[in-house]
Amino acid sequence: MELLTDGEWFWYSDLAHYVGPYHVQLDKACVDHARAQHWVPPNLSTEDLIRIGDTLDALFDAEASGMHTT
Q1: Which of 1, 32, 35, 48 fits a disulfide with 44 by CB distance 3.0 to 4.6 angstroms?
Q2: How far apart are CA 60 and CA 64, in angstroms?
């Protein structure tokens, strides 16, 4: 299982398995965003991916320390 992103939204690689057979509802804003991009995620640069990774690390660290982020 992999964590995927288009630079704005994140999802796990098995998401389609739950959306199809189990009818899991996706956030409307996510669907609207994907539709506006014609369902094609952008090619992200190495710098984009590093920035995203740093952001995720900070969120995980904040969660682990009990801090709330919004």
Answers
A1: 48
A2: 6
